[in-house]
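To: structure desk
From: M.T.
Subject: fold request, one chain
Message: Could you run this one when you get a chance? Sequence is below, nothing fancy, just the single chain.
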Amino acid sequence: MEKIEEESIKERKVDKNKNKKNEIQHKEEEKDKIKDKSKKSTLSFNELKIIILSLISFYFYILSFKGCEGTQSYCLVTLSPGFFYSLGVYLIISVIITIYIFYQILNKNNSKYHLFYYLPILIYFLYLHDNGSDLSHHGSYNKMLFYVLFVIFIIVFLNFSLLKYIYKNYRIIFVSITLSFIWIIIYTNIKIKKNCTTWYDGYNGLRVENDPKYDKCKIAHPKRCWINLLDGIFDVSRILRENCSNFRGGEKAELLKYLTPDFNQSNYFGYPITTNYTWLDQSHFDRFFNNVMADMINLDKVKYDQIDDELKPEILLKFDPISQMGDVSIKINKKEKMAKERNKLYNSLLPKDKPKYSNILFLYIDAISRPEFVRSMKQTEKFLSKYYNSTEKSLYQMMKYQNFIFFTQQNVNPMFFGESMFNSNGTSILKHIKKKGYITAHANNICTRQLYDIEDNYTENIIYDNFDHENIAFMCDPNFYNPENRFTPYMGPYSIRRRCLYGRDTFEYILEYGEKFWETYINEHKFLRLSFQDAHEGTLEVVKYLDVKLAEFLENFDKKGYLKDTAIFFVSDHGNNMIGFYNILQAEDYVLEKTLGTWFMLLPKKKNIDETYLEKNQQKMVSPYDIHDTLIDMFGYHKKDNVYSRKGKSVYQEINGLERDCHYYSQDIITVWCRCFDF
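Reply: Done. Structure tokens follow.
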């Protein structure tokens, strides 16, 4: 009996254990079901989250396209200072979300089908939605910045993931890396601050001086200077190892796209003379490129000597029949009759009306600030250093040269027309220069006859005049200038790469044209303006390629004696404002430099010229109006001639610094761009 009872007890225990196990198993199955349900609901939530984030990413990318309607000049005048900042914020948000979406799709348990709609839409926005490069449509720049930011944040994300892994497995190494990172941040911050110590510097020991006894305008000084710290990092051509001979191809085919069929079998071309083009019609930026292409000369069909002297092309292009690569030659056609008439005019001047110098060489570099000129133009400085404390020439540096805004027309109109852009009037200074018997010439590596695009705004009553010679049409060649997208950052006058055309930097053609012009009119009095767009881009690197050749050009002129009685101007319209890293970062030094352009002069020392005020005015607030009036003074005009500007004064005369601040230029300057720090 006892045995039977024991067995029954054991059986009951086994049954209980079985029941317990079944209960536990059942509970686990129930839990698994709940987990499966939660997984399904979580999965559907993650899928929905990716879709919503995709929409948000696209929304912010669309916001970054927001521009302005109207002409480029109108857009620039009305541009909000926060425009580039907003563009950067929108793109950063879009990039961060995009990276997160890719991470979720590729590394988590999410469906890969998201790629089938996300990638095509992203490609559409990057390549098709907006490929413009002006302020109304700026998709090319958005795309470029999107790529740059994407790479930067991917690197940050990968580093963060690596640190996370190291933290879990190698604590000591993690602590070491963290301490190193903190040290780098502290060191970088100290370095950025130290970089500002030279920001006030000019050449030959001259620095900005803010003395309240003599000057009302005290130029602001940045506390953190990024540009020196990152010098060379954004040099795209150096990174890609580009020079002007290693990425040539399809040159003739590209040019023929825009020419009539009768050019197809020809290899010898001439670029049209544009000095006879009307200003507001033929030279208008909407029509100028097409007019140049329509007037191209087929020199295989029309012999050069058979062309009228006034229309003989000065820029000649010959293609090799086999390689189809172009070779350019420059030939200045001397206008003998005009030269005689100008010499007669000069010789008829009374001694009191004679210009101060035989020649003026005006070197204009668009969008380079005074600090940037000092930073980047090292070889040019070497040339100038020969005349520090010289008995032959004097270097004058206008350390408080203030621009009215960060775009060209509002500064160039006062400079060369003596009037505010907003008045839409003014007379070209060329009229006054020619009356003094000077031959004039201009070359520029951009496809426009002015230093800015000629548009419908602010031009109604301007009295234009033509240079006697100009090299402009050549820079409309579609192998350099993109007529469908003139502001593109990949080629042309605003490119972040070297500006190459037919195997040479475009500035080389400008310098060669200037030299050929000078030698053609070696015995005449000359005003030569050579203009360069090489600083007009967002990396602040491209202008350094110009520096070497410009210094060589000046040295060559000096050795040949061409600079003996020649005044040389180094002038810009403003500092840099193109879209790039510094603009998106809103780096303090970069922002301040936007309206602090360059104005240096290398002048021959002459007994009859008083340099007293030239020396003193280096520390006075001056503007583009003063460049105009200084030129007028150099050409021997007097106040009674009524050709000076309203707001300017020659730097040969005393300028009262206590009268001048940004209120003085209230009609022209937009308050936010004033660089007087107590304004």
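Reply (cont.): The chain has two domains: 34-169, 236-673. Let me know if you need anything else for the meeting.
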